[in-house]
């Protein structure tokens, strides 16, 4: 824009001795400086309160039992049904009977009667079911304290997972199947092949089946059931 009565230049206009570029005038008139919009602070979500952890299944324990079988964690189906080893494909109750530790194959709803046969049940993981694998808490000290209080004659691990955690806690190498050379909570230890339906293979530490391992445990437990008879000289 050229101011009337004022000499112009090739690139702009002279106003009181000051040359103003036309392009600069246009830019200043068209450009509006935008102020940044202040961001609203994101409200913090309240931290949920942690509820008291509840066991998936109650322990089936008593003092001076013949045997306590320790699993790794309760299966999802067993958790829903509220009974130990109640999932499809579970062989626990059949293997227990074949080992001669129960007079017959007990159904899962009768699990509480197992104590009457001198056998208890618990798991290394008490507050989560098996599917929550990333959240499982292997509380070995609590298990050891629990078993030390009840003092079973034998401790058998139903599978190598729980046995391995307990062995390492006690300062031992991961165990194989069978009778161990270390004790847990003052009791001799026997590691069983897992009774889970997912544990199907051709070899169980040199044996073709799981039954023979469970039968070996049954033989050891029943041997201690027999009263010691004094022999006369």
UniProtKB/TrEMBL annotation:
Comp. bias intervals (Basic residues): 37-47
A GO MF label: uracil DNA N-glycosylase activity
Region (Disordered): 26-51, 197-233
InterPro entries xref list: MUG/TDG, Uracil-DNA_glycosylase-like, Uracil-DNA_glycosylase-like_sf
Domain Uracil-DNA glycosylase-like: 61-217
Keyword annotations of the record: DNA damage, DNA repair, Hydrolase
Biological process terms in GO annotation: base-excision repair, AP site formation
Annotated SUPFAM superfamilies: Uracil-DNA glycosylase-like
Bias kind Basic and acidic residues: ranges: 200-213
Origin superkingdom: Bacteria
One Pfam family it belongs to: UDG
Statement: the UniProt record of this protein carries the keyword DNA damage: yes
Protein name (Swiss-Prot/TrEMBL): Uracil-DNA glycosylase-like domain-containing protein
UniProt source species: Ornithinimicrobium pratense
């Amino acid at each position: 824009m050229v101011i009337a009565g004022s000499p112009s230049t090739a690139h702009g206009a002279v106003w009181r001795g000051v040359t103003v570029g036309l392009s600069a005038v246009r830019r200043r008139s068209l450009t509006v400086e935008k102020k940044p919009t202040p961001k609203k602070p994101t409200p913090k979500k309240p931290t949920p309160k942690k509820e008291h952890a509840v066991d998936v299944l109650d322990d089936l324990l008593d003092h001076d039992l013949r045997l306590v079988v320790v699993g790794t964690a309760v299966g999802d189906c067993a958790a829903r049904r509220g009974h130990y080893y109640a999932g499809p494909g579970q062989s626990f109750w059949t293997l227990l009977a074949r080992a001669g530790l129960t007079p017959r194959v007990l159904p899962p709803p009768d699990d509480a009667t197992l104590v009457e046969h001198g056998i208890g049940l618990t798991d290394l993981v008490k507050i989560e079911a098996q599917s929550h694998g990333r959240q499982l808490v292997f509380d070995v000290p609590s298990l050891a304290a629990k078993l030390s209080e009840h003092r079973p004659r034998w401790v058998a691990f139903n599978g190598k997972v729980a046995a391995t955690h307990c062995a390492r806690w006690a300062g031992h190498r991961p165990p194989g199947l069978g009778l161990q050379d270390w004790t847990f909570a003052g009791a001799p230890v026997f590691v069983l092949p897992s009774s889970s339906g997912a544990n199907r293979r051709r070899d169980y530490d040199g044996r073709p089946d799981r039954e023979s391992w469970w039968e070996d445990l049954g033989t050891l437990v029943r041997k201690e059931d027999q009263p010691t008879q004094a022999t006369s000289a």
